[in-house]
Design a protein that fits this description.
The complex is a heterodimer. In chain A, helix 11 packs parallel to helix 14 (435-461). Chain A is built from 16 helices and two strands. The two termini of chain A are 34 Å apart. Chain A is 65% helix and 1% strand. Chain A has helices at 31-35, 40-73, 82-120, 129-151, 165-168, 173-200, 213-245, 258-292, 299-312, 327-355, 364-387, 389-395, 399-429, 435-461, 476-506, 561-571; strands spanning 548-551, 556-559. By secondary structure, chain B is mainly α. Chain B has two domains: 29-142 and 270-339, Four Helix Bundle (Hemerythrin (Met), subunit A) (Up-down Bundle), CATH 1.20.120.80; 202-256, no CATH class. Chain B contains 13 helices and two strands. A two-stranded antiparallel sheet of chain B has the order 1-2. The longest helix of chain B has 36 residues, at 29-64. Classes of the chains: A mainly alpha, B mainly alpha. The structure holds copper (II) ion (CU). Residues 270, 273, 316, 319-320 of chain A line the site of copper (II) ion.
């Protein structure tokens, strides 16, 4: 655990300072210098603001839907009416649609990926800066459609837009599909950019197997974004045509096949789960290495398991449809679903092996990686339960499924995202945050999340259906506990927000390298200059941290280049 | 390992011979060119997957509603489709020629070839427009406006439906090249003994039309009385024996002559689905052609201003890739929609 102090001169240790001390944030001024920026770091920041706003909005709907369920569990307070049931349908749909399309999918690639990927490559920018900006505007346009949905009748289809209900409901399905369609383009452009950047802009001396594991994870994610999202695009386009023109493709009354929509939708949306979790895993690999102060265990296993997960992820969509497809298809999809557990478990075991005999520092980012391992193990193992046919037929559309995928898509992804945000926060803004507040918030989030979702496993295993506004009295207790848990989670998240804002306004100046990591972003100043590096960074093994010496006066690490060169020579014997 | 050599190299790039078209974050023009090309290939992969979904939907519905597709396809005009294929292939040739001209620094040839390619796009869209207009004329819109649209088991537009059936039956029974003049399907009625009696009444009442109209109009209960032919294959073989020479021996080819009354009552209500898919596929492709034309217009403008040279032709090369993909998608669309029986 790093010592918190307030040194006067938390300066930069190498020549990575712009003359006049400007950085990418104050390099130029005015709203237009942001809205027309081609700088990946500024685009990352603009993404951060909007994605966090979407998180706040979608999260509010989540808390609202839990509140309605709490009220149902205590009917003396406010009895359930048809109006409140409609409201419930709207709340769970909007929480899902906004959080999936506008928070979970873009969060790590668009914020941390944009910010860190070129830095990790020692590059000046991504391969296509204009496309990068366009991707942000696509995100804004998609967000605009969702705002329109909010103001014009809402949405009550669930985030999955299942037909035939989605073609007959009176809510704003057409606008929502267009919104998700445009957001998909934002995602595709980011993925395309990252693939080209990783292929073309690696510095001399950084082969594929000298890349930080976060980049492997982003690469695997990008492959999914690029190959799966277009299928969602065409699906939504067909749904839009169905909705507006009634072409009949998904409408059984017109000769169409609603189950085809499910196939199309999950062909995208299962891989999309890996768009959410793979970059999160990449963050965890970075955090594990840095905070255990050790070469990551099983580098190539972790790297290849990212690719394996990305590829296998395309072959398992049918596990969402065990109740709607043939027994043969079920058996095949079940088998492939089990096989995804192998690369996932490889990662977990390698992280645990990295911790073994490491000198672990329990800084806030590391606490989040521990929370990640806890939640991912729960979410992953229950995923294996659900992959088995006999159990899934029983648990299908119960809150057991809700608890399972929230553990992975929300719990794991969110803890990794927050861990990554804390980890790179000093790099992004040049400010430290309050460690104590950060740890209290971590504790609240960890407890709150487990409280919210663990009881849903229990309720689901006893038959509580998902997406129901009403329930039998015996489920009341679970819903009460879950709602209280969601409040604790929300308080923890607001505390995080407070801590970040406080850090921006009054945070201690951050050193260049507060954690001692050796990936290239730590080789430039905090925050980095406009073009990332004043002089080209020294490229070496990403997890070779012995060339960094702790300097108490700045509470950060200082690079010893001579030793780095010596270590590099030894490494290549 | 970054060496001093690379650093000085980099510094030199920043100061001196950094070509105007080289973006600041690339070290060399080659790196920039390769990046652009890789980016375009990745983008083409997304396009293929997007159309892949559409092709997949096509395959599934074709499998589920074989006869509907065989019937609906009669509304399409092979000749226009083939002409468009030739137009698009020719424009791909001029595009490739233009890329070659750009690489060799032949400015005038480049401009000429880009204009030729653009005109290919114009030609394609015009012909597509003619085809769409023909569908419009016969009320074969996508969705609820389609003449074949049924609502609650009843034809929504009985008059338009009658006309559309005339149109397609006429073409399917041998009037293909004439573009809609309805020939009587020789021997069709007399060989078909599975038709409900009402049919002959309808035909007599509407003697101008040789086409059999089912008695569903105004009498929804009759829908159930319309049964599929006892042996559709036999019926198809008969038709093909009369109308078709050559490959009519295979059973699948025999299906091409399918007429309205060869469809079961349930299938008749799904004919509009064919047009939904037809318009989705060709519409999305047409949109891509339009985007490609904008791209080529932009390239032409730049080429005209002499912005390309032997050292810098990446946009032409990369734009060409896109145009070839649009072409390639049509090469699949054409046989799937117009040719496969
Ligand atoms: Cu799945």
């Amino acid at each position: 655990m790093s010592v918190i102090q307030d040194p006067v001169n938390a300066g930069v240790t190498s020549g990575q300072q712009e003359p006049g001390g400007t950085n990418y944030i104050n390099h130029s001024k005015g709203a237009l210098s942001w809205l027309l920026t081609l700088d990946h770091k500024r685009i990352g920041l603009m993404y951060m603001v909007m994605v966090l706003a979407a998180f706040l909005l979608g999260g509010s709907f989540a808390v609202a839907l839990r509140t309605l369920l709490f009220l149902r569990a205590a009917p003396d307070v406010a009895p359930m009416t048809p109006a409140s049931q409609d409201l419930y349908n709207q709340f769970f749909t909007l929480h899902g649609a906004i959080l999936v399309f506008m928070f979970i999918i873009p969060a790590v690639p668009a914020i941390l990926g944009n910010m860190i990927l070129p830095l990790m490559l020692g590059a000046k920018d991504v391969a296509f800066p204009r496309l990068n900006l366009l991707s942000w505007y696509c995100y804004m346009a998609g967000g605009g459609f969702f705002l329109y949905v909010l103001l014009s009748g809402g949405l009550d289809t669930g985030w999955t837009f299942y037909t035939p209900y989605s073609t007959s409901t009176n809510t704003s399905v057409a606008a929502a599909t267009l919104g998700a369609f445009v957001l998909g383009f934002s995602s595709i452009l980011t993925g395309l950019n990252f693939i080209a950047t990783i292929h073309m802009l690696r510095p001399p001396g950084m082969g594929w197997f000298q890349m930080p594991l976060f980049l492997w994870a982003l690469y695997a994610t990008s492959v999914i974004q690029v190959l799966a999202t277009p299928v969602l695009a065409i699906t939504l386009l067909l749904l839009f045509a169905e909705r507006v023109l009634h072409v009949g493709i998904f409408d059984p009354a017109l000769g169409g096949d609603p189950v085809l929509f499910q196939h199309f939708f999950w062909f995208y949306s299962h891989p999309a789960v890996y768009i959410m979790i793979l970059p999160a895993m990449g963050i965890i690999s970075e955090l594990m290495a840095t905070f255990c102060r050790r070469q990551i265990f099983g580098y190539s296993f972790i790297a290849f398991s990212s690719i394996a997960i990305a590829l296998l992820g395309f072959l398992v969509w049918g596990h969402h449809m065990y109740t709607t497809q043939s027994a043969m298809a079920n058996a095949v999809f079940s088998l492939i679903t089990f096989s995804v557990a192998i690369p996932s478990a490889i990662k977990v075991f390698n992280w645990l092996a990295t911790m073994y005999k490491g000198s672990i520092s329990l800084a806030t980012p590391m606490l989040y990686s521990l929370a990640f391992i806890w939640l991912f193990t729960i979410g992953g193992l229950t995923g294996v339960f659900l992959g088995s046919l006999s159990l899934d037929i029983m648990a299908h559309d119960t809150t057991f499924v809700v608890a399972h995928f929230h553990s992975v898509m929300v719990g794991s992804m969110l803890t990794a995202f927050l861990g990554g945000m804390y980890y790179w926060w000093p790099k992004m803004f040049g400010k430290m945050y309050n460690e104590t507040v950060a740890k209290v918030a971590w504790f609240l989030i960890f407890i709150g999340f487990n409280l919210t979702f663990f009881v849903l496993f229990v309720a689901g295993s006893q038959g509580m259906p998902r997406r129901y506004a009403d329930f039998l009295p015996e489920f009341a207790i679970y819903h009460k506990i879950s709602t209280v848990g969601s409040y604790v989670l929300a308080i923890g998240l607001f505390l995080v927000l407070y801590n970040w804002i406080h850090s921006l306004l009054a945070g201690r100046k951050a050193p260049q390298n507060p954690w001692g990591g050796n990936t290239l972003e730590w080789h430039t100043s905090s925050p980095p200059p406009h073009e990332n590096f004043i002089e080209e960074p020294f490229v070496s093994e990403p997890y070779q941290m012995h060339a960094w010496d702790y300097d108490e006066s700045i509470d950060g690490y200082v690079f010893n280049r001579a030793r780095a060169e010596e270590l590099e020579k030894q490494g290549h014997h | 390992m970054s060496s001093e050599h690379e650093q000085s190299n980099h510094a030199a790039n920043g100061d001196h011979h950094h070509p105007a078209h080289l973006a600041h974050h690339f070290e060399t023009p080659e790196q920039q060119f390769e990046s652009g090309k890789l980016g375009m290939w990745v983008f083409l992969a997304t396009e293929i997957l997007m159309f892949g979904g559409l092709f997949c939907a096509y395959a599934i519905y074709r499998g589920n509603h074989q006869d509907v597709f065989l019937y609906g396809y009669g509304a399409l005009d092979k000749m226009w489709g083939a002409t468009n294929t030739v137009v698009l292939l020719a424009s791909s040739l001029t595009m490739a020629w233009g890329v070659r001209a750009a690489q060799k620094g032949q400015q005038k040839l480049l401009v000429a070839m880009l204009i030729a390619t653009f005109m290919g796009g114009v030609g394609f869209m015009c012909i597509k427009g003619v085809e769409y207009q023909q569908k419009w004329k016969h009320n074969l819109f996508p969705g609820t406006m389609n003449a074949f649209y049924y609502e609650g088991g009843q034809a929504k537009y009985p008059e338009k439906l009658k006309h559309a059936i005339e149109f397609i039956d006429g073409r399917n029974s041998g009037g293909e090249a004439s573009g809609g003049g309805g020939h009587a399907p020789a021997g069709h009625e007399s060989t078909d003994d599975s038709k409900p009696v009402e049919h002959s009444d309808t035909v007599e009442a509407d003697s101008a039309s040789p086409v059999i109209i089912p008695a569903v109009f105004g009498a929804p209960a009759d829908v159930s009385t319309i049964k599929p032919p006892a042996n559709p294959t036999e019926q198809g073989v008969l038709d093909s024996a009369i109308d078709q020479a050559g490959d009519g021996s295979t059973p699948s080819a025999a299906h091409t002559q399918i007429l309205w009354n060869d469809l079961s009552g349930a299938e008749q209500k799904k004919v509009h689905l064919f047009f939904g898919i037809y318009f989705m596929m060709t519409g999305l492709h047409g949109l891509h052609v339009l985007i490609g034309m904008v791209l080529i217009a932009w390239l032409t403008f730049k080429a005209f201003k002499g912005q390309f040279s032997k050292d810098y032709f990446a946009p032409v090369d990369i734009g060409g890739l896109y145009w070839h993909l649009v072409d390639l998608i049509w090469i699949f669309l054409f046989p799937l929609l117009y040719l496969i029986h």
